[in-house]
Every structure is written in structure tokens, then in C-alpha cells.
Write a structure and sequence with these properties.
- 65% of the residues lie in helices and 0% in strands.
- The chain is mainly α and 220 residues long.
- The protein has one domain (25-210): Urease accessory protein UreF, CATH 1.10.4190.
């Protein structure tokens, strides 16, 4: 069970106010909007569902779960971090997950714990959060569900700023996707690194195309 202190820490780490700069990234959504792949709120919901079923967010969930399990093993965390960074399909995805991962560890040092010393200097975002959550005794199922919900919230926020959806529609998207978050978190909790992989080709292409986009709001 998630005790009160662990809950408070999880809420702080995954809050939009946590100083990791998540607001600056869209994960390729900006290019998808420019290319007409995402036009309205239902498209944004479908985009998120695809990412978490078949794309980068699914891999994030697998990496998160493995980092949670290996939080006490410095060597395993180093190898996992290298694998997670190597899975980045574009230079911007690499920069995004690396920037967020390093910033998260820096900010999380406000809660001192030996797990921080076991983490490599360069690591992807899901590995940093998964390991730190395990170190502080946050159960995997709750930590992973909260991580995915925060990732969805960030993409929805980007979609609102890109005028794909209004605020009420954004909240409705998050509500509608709750069962999917629960299902993916449960499956990822039983996953191994052999489950890594993806088929969200359009999302990967959008991320690559964003690198040459002339006018943009986001860094990815």
C-alpha cells in the first residue's frame, strides 16, 4: 500500500511544477499537428493511446518497471540507462529523455537517498523516476500509473497550447484514458526487457521531421 509520505513524494515528483522542464517538449506532437495527423481532441486521444500501446510510452513503462526492480544494483542501472537512451528514435527524443532524466535526479536530491548515488550521470527519464520511486518505497503499480498519467497530462497540455483541444476536452481525454493507463501499468509491471519494441511509425517520423521544422513552440 502507498503510505502518505510516499504519496506526497510521488505527487511532488510528477507535478507539472517539478523543475525538470517538461513543458518545453511535445514528443513529436507539434510536427504531427503541423502535418495534419492530429487535428482535434479525438485525434489527440488516439495519438496518446497509440503511444502507450505501441510506441515510446510503452517502452518507457517497461524501462520504468525494470529500473524499479533494479534500483539496488548500480551495474544493472547503468546498463539499463544506456539501453534506454539507445532506444531513442531521433536526436530530439534522445535530448528530451536525457534532459528530463538528469533534471529529475537533480531535483529529487531534495529527498536524499542512497539510490541517487547508484544512478549514472546520463540516463533516460523513466529509468530515473523508476529507480528513485523504488528507493523511496513507492509501490511499482502506483508509481508507474502515476508516471504514465503525468506523461499523458504533459502531451495533453502541449495539445492545448497547439490549439488541438480545449481545457475541458483535455480533462475529458485524461478521464477516458484512465482504464488504458491502468492496463498498461499492470502489464508493464510483469514485463521484462524482452518486451521492448514498438510500431508507432508515424510518431517516430513526426519526431524526426520536427528536427527541421522552421516555426515551433517546443523542443521536440
Amino acid at each position: 500500500m502507498l503510505d502518505t509520505r510516499a504519496l506526497l513524494r510521488l505527487m511532488a515528483w510528477l507535478s507539472p511544477a517539478f523543475p525538470i522542464g517538461g513543458f518545453a517538449w511535445s514528443g513529436g506532437l507539434e510536427r504531427a499537428v503541423a502535418d495534419g495527423l492530429v487535428r482535434k481532441a479525438p485525434d489527440l486521444q488516439a495519438w496518446l493511446a497509440t503511444l502507450v500501446r505501441h510506441g515510446s510510452l510503452r517502452n518507457d513503462a517497461v524501462l520504468f518497471a525494470e529500473a524499479w526492480r533494479q534500483a539496488g544494483d548500480e551495474g544493472a542501472l547503468k546498463e539499463l540507462a544506456a539501453l534506454g537512451l539507445a532506444l531513442s528514435g531521433s536526436s530530439e527524443r534522445f535530448a528530451e529523455t536525457l534532459s528530463l532524466g538528469k533534471a529529475f535526479v537533480t531535483a529529487a536530491s531534495a529527498w536524499p537517498h542512497p539510490v541517487l548515488a547508484r544512478l549514472p550521470e546520463d540516463l533516460p527519464f523513466p529509468v530515473s523516476v523508476g529507480a528513485v520511486a523504488a528507493g523511496h518505497g513507492v509501490p511499482l503499480s502506483q508509481a508507474l500509473a502515476a508516471y504514465l498519467h503525468a506523461a499523458f497530462s504533459q502531451v495533453v497540455s502541449a495539445g492545448i497550447r497547439l490549439s488541438v483541444a480545449g481545457q475541458a476536452e483535455g480533462v475529458a481525454i485524461l478521464a477516458a484514458l484512465e482504464p488504458l493507463i491502468e492496463d498498461v501499468a499492470r502489464a508493464a509491471g510483469r514485463s521484462t526487457l524482452d518486451d521492448l519494441g514498438g510500431a508507432a511509425i508515424q510518431a517516430e517520423i513526426a519526431s524526426l521531421r520536427h528536427e527541421t521544422q522552421h516555426s515551433r513552440l517546443f523542443r521536440s
